[in-house]
Amino acid sequence: MHVPESWQTLARDIVLSHAEPMNSQLQLAIFGRCMRLLSLDALKDEVHLFCLEPLALIAGQIIIMFLFPGTTSPQRQVVEARLARSLLSCCRCVRGFYTNLAQMRLRFVLARQISVAHILSFLDVVNEWVYLRLEPLVLGAGHARLLLLLDAVRLTLYECLSNVTLLRAKPNFRAAVASLITSSEAAEFLQLDHLLPLTIFYYIEGNTAEQLFAQLHFKALRGSIVTLDPQVIDEIKHHSFRLQNARYFNQDFSVRFWQMIQLVFMVSKSQDFAKLLGTDELDSWSAHTQIQLVPLMRVFFNNLLSCFDRPFPILLLVFRLFLDRFGPQMWALVQDVHYTNVVDTVFRSAFFQKHLHHAALGENPAAKLAPLLEWIPSLISSLTGPQKQTAAIKVTSFLVQRELADPSNTRTDSAAVLLACFESLTQPQTALASLLKMQDARVAVNRHTDYFVGLARKGSKDAMSLVCVCLKYDIALAVHNLSLIQQKKSPTLFDSNNALWASLAKVPLTLTQFASKILESLIDVLAVLVFKDSKGQVTKEFEAALKIHNRDTTALCGSVCSILEKLALMDPEDLKVVLSTEACLVGIWSCIFNPLMNQSALTVIYQVHDSEGRYENIWSLLNDSLNVNVSAINKSLLKLAEISAFEPCPKALRILMDIITALADPLKGILNTQTGHHVDSMLAIRGFWESCWLFLVMIYKKTLVWAGLYHLSDLIEFTRDTLDASHLLLDSFRVLMDFFSDPSMKTPLFETFMNTFIHMIVWLRLGDVSLLNSCVDLVFKGFDLAKELDAHVDKNFIITFAKYGAKAKKFNNKLTEQQRGMILSKASDFDAKLVQYVVDESAKERMSVSPPASKDDLSDSSLGASYAYQSRKGAKQSTLSRFGVVTNEPPVAPPPLVKNFKPNNLEAIRNELKNNRAPTKPVINPAPPRPAGFNHKTPAVGRYINGLKKKHDSDSSDEDDEADVDVSDLFLESKKKPKVIEVDFNGRPIPRLAQAKKINTKRQEEERMRMRLNVNLKPLYSTVLKWNYNTDSEFPTDDRDIYKPIKDSYSSAKEYVAEIEPLLMLECWQGIQSSRVTGQELPFELLVGSRTTCDGFFDVYVSMKKADLAARKIGETDLLVLGYVADKDMKSPHEISRYLKLRDSQTCLAKVREIKYANPDYSDVTVRVYPQGSMMGLLTPKSVVVGMKVMQMITVEREYSSLRGLPYYDLCDEILAGKPCKPKEISDEEARGMCGKLGVNMSQAKAIIGANREEGFSLIQGPPGTGKTKTILGIVGHFLSSVAVNPNTIITPVPNASSGSEESKPVNKVLICAPSNAAVDELVVRLKDGVVNDSGQKSVPKIVRLGRSDAVNPSVRHLCLEELIESQLKARAASAPVDPNIRVEHNKCLAERDRIREALKKQDLPDPEIIKLQSQLREVTKKRSELGKRLDEQRENQSIAHRTREIEKRQVQAKILSEAQVICSTLSGSAHDFLASMSMKFDQVIIDEACQCVELSAIIPLRYGCKKCVMVGDPNQLPPTVLSQKAASYKYEESLFVRMQKNNLDSIYLLDVQYRMHPEISRFPSAQFYNSRLSDGAGMLEKNKRPWHNQPPLAPYKFFDIVSRHQQNQQSKSFFNAAEARVALELVETLMRILPENEFKGRIGIISPYKEQIRTLRDTFQKKFGTLIFNEIDFNTVDGFQGQEKEIIIMSCVRASENGSVGFLSDVRRMNVALTRARTTLWILGNKSSLRRDRVWNKLISDAESRSCVSLAQPGFLNNMKSIKATSEFSVERTEAAAHEQVPIARLGTYEKPDFAQGHAIGTSIKPQEKPSRTSGGADSHRLNSDNPDPSSYHPSAVIPSTGSYRPSSVGPQKSSYRPADNESVKIKKSHHDETTKRKLNEQNDEKRKHKKKHVYIHKPQANDAGRDRPGDTTPSSLPLRPADTGENGVGVLHEPPVPKHHAAPPRASNSGIYRTDDRPRGPKKPTNSSIFIKPRKPHRPAGPRGP
């Protein structure tokens, strides 16, 4: 309907007129307008005058017309008719009419001040009008019930219900209406959705039927909220006024009224009900009724305090409703009523006691007691402050007495009352005021603890809540006191509430709900801590308060532990229910993280999960319910970060590491293995990541403060744990990324870590080196991750970080130069320009006199590494309390000393003399120094002793003197140093350009060192891991264009790398292929745990058996092949191995990254694979794959890093150009002087002087027997004695060395390397006997041998780094003991516990038996808990002990290497990680056997900043062994020595005097191979003359021409000659008859170019003499004999045919080696006619013929010599002695005769524990005294005892020298058959002679024996190892001893991993024994230890 604007205007005017009620004109005008409007014709059809706006307002205003009765104008008649029509149209109009009427009445009373009487008169007029309309309808309807169905009748009845005044005034009319509404139809119709006045009227004044109608109406409204119309409010007030009138009051009226109020209260709105409480009309009605009326609330209290009998229950019920609705506001409504009046009145009332009694005894007591008691908790809740506490305590006493008096009572109102007093405990922070308010209530609980605990155990929720809130209160109090103590404030409120805890501890806890609530109450128990003793100064008051706090807290923690132990006795299934909710888990984790409750909390977990230790139980708990547990852990971690206390952190870190491991362990981590089951936990896991770093941030920040408060012994392990936890957490990043499977999570997760990073780098100031190293590793790991993720790093952070590397002021640290360089490098990866700017600025600061304080600094970080809460007030000495605080002020230089002007006159001189004569005051010595800090204990492990500088005993030391004060137990403190300023005459500072240049040079050197030592190996493995293992090609890829021959010189490092790297990769590929073809490795199973993406690779975490790990000798540098055979039904390892090698097998290559020993049976291994190929889909969690070792990559890695680091080598240019330094002209006089001092010859002396004089490469060529070793010793002695300290040497810090001590001085260092372990050990043997310095004095330098001790010669093993470390560590504390009985007892307890639990489940147990079993269960549980604690402690102690030992090991390692003068290593081993980590720099590097190594191996030791390199070798002997023939064809086998020699033929020092061979032997090699420049040493003829030389044809040098034919083995394609083998046998038999038995062993070597011939020779000799002959004679190939020597050499040339070439024999280098191995006798067996076809051999034969040294020979040709017997006239002893007598004494020097009985025979002395040493390829690797210029150098101590630990790739005999004893009478040997008898006789003299038989091993073909089938190689495998591949482990050239078949060990590959191939192409060989191999019999093993 459209509403005209005039209507809207009139409605607004009506509203405005209400504001002017006394304006009669306005009111009349408004009334007139309303009348006119309603009489308009436009409204003649409108029936809803009171429904529609604004007509409702206008129609309501029209009611005023009834003020004018008797008026009958037409207009009024129209209006009245229209009003009547509306009231009969709808209920809304009726309701609107009476609402307007009530509002008008109220306005008349309040606004117009009209009397109540006049208003009642007005209402009577209105009611009369209504009555006249309704009477006919009501009465008529009463006579005709059918009309009830008419709407008009229904509306009539509705209007009657709305006009109670009419019904009250017309009794007959009331009866008619009652009759109508009691009908069922009407009653149903009238149950409306709002309250009617008639309902109120009927409820109070109605009869039974009427009251029933009212009750039904209230029931219909129950549950809904209705609006109280004004007419309803008027009706209620009417009855309220009547209730105050004594004429109407009675108890029944009171009951009905308050029942009605209760019902109205329940269905009405608060604001509507508040209208009933108003006092607006009270005065008017009081005047009308002549009674002083009061508000409704006061009426209520008047009724309540009157203590009437029947109204009591309903009054108390209404009281509760009022209290609940209005709360504390209610008391403001009745200010004259106090709560105490109510409580006292009610409790004293007899009627109240009567009602309580009847209710308790009657039916349904709970329902009857409710209205009587429920008001009490509401009353307490309505009170505040002290009133609440007082009322609660008063009420509680009453209620407890009542509840105890009624045994059947089920109500717990007393608990609810007290519970209300603790509501503020729900707030996070509980202030002291709140605690004080609740204190009285807490004391009240203590009065009834047993009662409340009993109620709680019965299931009372209020009692449970009360008990638990009291526990919370006690915990909150302890937490509050902790907060005060942390602020150095004394607490005033202490906990003495122990009664409740004691009550709980006495009773069993079986109710899961109660147990859950108890655990929930412990959520803050993490902050209940006992403070440790600190070093700070405190007041006595504070100290006393601290003691009280610690006492109370200890008691509280004990109580919590008791309750936890009670919980542990619950049924495990019930405990599982308890621990399934997050609230309970928060409580239990809070206890776990609390160090005082940790074990008790774990006991609870132990009952649910039967795991033995903490980690296992944590894993089980997380696995059961990950989401809620992690959420609970997060809250605990955040709480730890919030309280920021030191005390819980150590234990919390240990637990946190267990949690991280349980979640993210690569193999067993829950996030790895069950990702799909924990999708709902993603939010919690992210929270865990953030919480952990927040916790660690707190530690990183607060430790700087704690360092000044707690003792070092408390902090060291804690700091290590912090770093370990950080490492572990950061390592889990990739696991989390895989868990989330959402790339978008990468950034927020890493940002969380970066927020910690800024605090983490402050720890780079740690003073302990081991801690610092761990911190550096962590920081670098973070930067690497940032780089990998391409994350943004804040510039301010980069600046701060770079300042640590740039040595900026106020960034004091103990970082090594390498670490500083790495810091700058890492920072430069993100902003190189900014880092360079920081470096430059830092250098300027150090150079500046007084750096200005610029306001435009780059950032706040320039103020130094500090936190906001740290400050420094002045430039005074730092005190102990300020440990770890970094200053932000520049150091202030002390003022210059002011010198007074002294006049130059007589008076001044007199005064000065007078002053000088004055007696001087005695000098008072300063107080004796005291140790740092207050900790007088032994310094903790890992801290340097020089960090504990002494201080004065008195604390009053001069604070201005910081120079000698240690201000940090844990961190470094920047210290002021006085500056010395150089000024000119004008006082201006002199620029220090020289020093700046020096600093820049040093900085560049450091940067180059860092670049050399930190080569990224990712490109290497990106290439290698892509290769297809199963390819047969000689090339790894199809690209052939990348391979180019090695040039003689290169123009740039880039060109060099580009051409050499492909050849290195080719050699590596051939190693892989050789392993695949010939290797006999066995596969092993791997269980895949998980895999993560890392740096472009997949890191796969697998588990394998430790037994397999040990048997296959898997290391962290091994390359594996992985395959999948689960679907192939293969069981045999050999079958699987063959499958993996097939061309179409499904495999991939993998590199071992890390090995962790998880438990006694299994190891966790991390392998890296390239993410390509089908295997990636099989490397999934829980899958089982097989792995097989391929090769070791250590040498490849080191050669690769040397190649990539070459541009930064100091000798890079020389290497590229292939240019050695030219030999300087050295005068003969200078050389002779050196000869006299060092006992060397002229060529050696010139080599020694020249090598030390020039920088760059010095080449020394040492032909066989020319004394290369002695020359090296001379170089070392000359260098150590003549070279001053290198000013550029980076000095390595010496731990535990005080300043100024001998140890702290710089040490000149020499690095000596060789390709093989044997060659290195020979050098060490000679070095340990001392070197001669320039003064001719002998001194023993400090020597360290790098390499694995079991691969080192026993005679020098004590100098091995490992042995030196172990010897020093033995004196340290032993490792943590392990008691295996603990675990046994633990398992027994579990079994006993299970037995008792089963017994308790029986139903018919008597009570005494149950009590007994429960007691036993408690004892068993307690014992198990204690055992679990001991297991955890044992595990932690083991972990700490292991970590401590590793730290000690590194420190000792650093000290040993720092003090060493000579470090010896293989070439590969020189790249030892620890050498690199120390940034060690060598002044000189010496490489022995330099021609035996490939070029990349030779440059490995040059990475340490060496500028002098001496290479010693002989290019005329065999070259390095290279696997890849393709690589060799590109000259890869050419050594650096040879390349340099070719480029500069005149740049070599030649050693030209040989001291090994008989002149007859040396004649041809000298002429042929050395252009006759090789001369014999003095006396060599006499020295090497032997008795058999006089017996033709046994001359010193002889070629035996044997007419025979060679044969070829069809399988191996190697040649053999049986006739030559038999001739060799006859020659040996002849020597046996000549030589005494004990002078025969080790003197003969039989060699041949062909392996098949060596096998034939061995077979021939074994048939004759048995296997013991191998103890006497060495059989080996020519290649295998390089570097060795024997007194007698028999060489079998094999080749004998009518035509064809001589094959391998044509190699002059091999020929040179073969002809120069003998000292006294060389017999060559060959076919003259065949050998003459070769040019060089033709020369040899011609030369022999010219000297009559050729004899015909055939089997049996020596039969005529069988009569020769050994007699005394052939005593070698006499012959050699005579020879010695002929040697000039001047050339001999001091000669000590060797004592054969003492085992000093050269090359044959074998101690009982040693076995024969076999060297490979390294030239002269066992060169002994024969290298010396004269016999004087045959010193007994220079002997190398052989050892079975040596198993070179080319097995060769131990060289020997015939050295008879002086006083030993030797009988002539008659026969050689009774070997056993003779050996026994010899062994009886072992202690005297130290001389035992050697045991020669017969080698089985194994993967690690694979060698190249060179003509001189007798290793029973086709691929020998090259010496250059020998790692520091020294196993690259080793071979396993033979194992009898019944003891066969699984084959293994060599640890070097590089296999060498044949010189000539041939097909793959089967890795099985063939005819070329001797079938080994079980060898006789002499007594003593065996080789590995």
Describe this structure in words.
There is one protein chain. The protein is an alpha/beta fold. Helices cover 48% and strands 7% of the residues. It has 76 helices and 27 strands. A seven-stranded parallel sheet has the order 13-14-10-15-16-9-17, sandwiched between helices. The chain has a six-stranded antiparallel β-barrel with strand order 3-4-7-6-5-8, surrounded by six helices. The chain has a six-stranded parallel sheet with strand order 24-23-25-26-20-27. A hairpin with a 2-residue loop joins strand 3 (1084-1094) and strand 4 (1097-1105). Helix 14 (251-267) runs parallel beside helix 18 and helix 34 (598-608) packs across helix 60. The longest helix is centred in the C-terminal third of the chain and has 53 residues, at 1407-1459. It is elongated and about 175 Å long. Residues 145-149, 849-906, 920-968, 1284-1304 and 1766-1988 have low confidence and may be disordered.
How would you summarize what this structure contains?
With about 2000 residues, this protein is an alpha/beta fold.
Head-to-tail CA distance between termini: 112 Å
Beta strand %: 5-15%
Unreliable residue stretches: 145-149, 849-906, 920-968, 1284-1304, 1766-1988
Q: Treating each run of at least 4 consecutive H or I residues as one helix, how many helices?
A: 76
State the strand order across the main sheet. Answer: 13-14-10-15-16-9-17
Name the structural class: alpha/beta
Summarize the topology.
Elements: H1 5-17, H2 24-38, H3 55-62, H4 74-87, H5 91-110, H6 116-143, H7 151-162, H8 164-169, H9 171-181, H10 184-189, H11 197-205, H12 208-221, H13 230-243, H14 251-267, H15 270-276, H16 282-289, H17 296-305, H18 312-326, H19 329-333, H20 339-348, H21 350-361, H22 365-373, H23 375-382, H24 385-405, H25 413-419, H26 432-447, H27 449-457, H28 461-486, H29 499-506, H30 512-520, H31 540-568, H32 572-578, H33 582-593, H34 598-608, H35 614-624, H36 626-643, H37 649-664, H38 670-673, H39 682-706, H40 712-731, H41 733-740, H42 746-760, H43 769-789, H44 795-805, H45 817-847, H46 906-917, E1 929-930, E2 951-952, H47 993-1013, H48 1018-1024, H49 1053-1078, E3 1084-1094, E4 1097-1105, H50 1106-1112, E5 1118-1123, H51 1133-1140, E6 1147-1156, E7 1162-1169, E8 1184-1192, H52 1194-1205, H53 1212-1217, H54 1228-1238, H55 1242-1253, E9 1256-1261, H56 1268-1282, E10 1310-1314, H57 1317-1328, E11 1331-1332, E12 1338-1339, E13 1343-1345, H58 1361-1369, H59 1380-1400, H60 1407-1459, E14 1462-1466, H61 1473-1477, E15 1484-1487, H62 1495-1498, E16 1508-1513, H63 1525-1529, H64 1536-1543, ...
Parallel strand pairs: 9-16, 9-17, 10-14, 10-15, 13-14, 15-16, 18-19, 20-26, 20-27, 23-24, 23-25, 25-26
Antiparallel strand pairs: 1-2, 3-4, 3-8, 4-7, 5-6, 5-8, 6-7, 11-12, 21-22
Helix pairs in contact: 1-2, 1-3, 2-3, 3-5, 5-7, 6-7, 6-9, 11-12, 11-13, 13-14, 14-18, 18-22, 18-23, 21-22, 23-24, 23-25, 24-25, 24-26, 25-28, 26-28, 27-28, 28-30, 28-31, 29-31, 30-32, 30-33, 31-34, 33-34, 33-36, 34-60, 35-36, 35-37, 36-39, 37-40, 39-40, 39-42, 40-43, 42-43, 43-45, 44-45, ...
